[in-house]
Here is the input.
Amino acid sequence: MANESRPCPCDIGDRFDYGGRGQEVQVEHIKAYVCKPPACTDKAVIVIHDIFGWQLPNTRYMADMLTTNGYIAICPDFFVGQEAWKPSNDWATFDEWLKTRNAGKIDKEVDVVLKYLRDQCGAKKIGVIGFCWGGAAVQHLMLKNPHLKTGVSVYGVIRYFDDKYGLLHPTFFIFGEKDDIIPLEQVTLLEQKLKQNCKVDFEVKIYPGQTHGFVHRKREDINPQDKPYIEEGRKDMINWLNKYL
Here is the structure.
């Protein structure tokens, strides 16, 4: 587990030098990054950022990857104007910072984004993916929001489940074997509880040797030993969305 001076292992990873192919828009009270495929589609994916916020190039890279696979992708600012975490911040202040950014209290913003996707983008089938903080948000939404079709939680902190396992929609869970903040025993217990209580399709997958952030915060070209798992995680994510959207 992470030590007290470092309650979260989220270093920035390999910050991509990436500008994005989409555009920033205003959706009621929320700013958002939107990217659309060249061909018309009624399928969309909400991308929920990690603690480093909606402008992190790595997360926009993932949104654009969804677009190249035929989806409208939107990454809203779920911190709603509050500052994202910075690598230079003092980790001793992290818990206080997190209290004002609750991954389980984004329902108002999600409703606004869903309305925008339906009314402005013509989306009828909408899923959600999220990373780290966003992965926990996906878990919350899969337990609560009836309007989403499916979700992918990428190393979302399991403790946010709060002993609720009745998922409403098919959900895919991605974890790294060597994640400092999500012990494997928690992952095993999650899978057991889902098997006992969940009535929809789900999958829990652990990627060998991988640390927190591997799907979107490691660059495959400078992490050759991790490249197969980075690519596998991204491919699995797309395949899950393709199956249920």
Observations:
- The mean pLDDT is 90.
- Residues 86 and 120 are 33 Å apart (CA to CA).
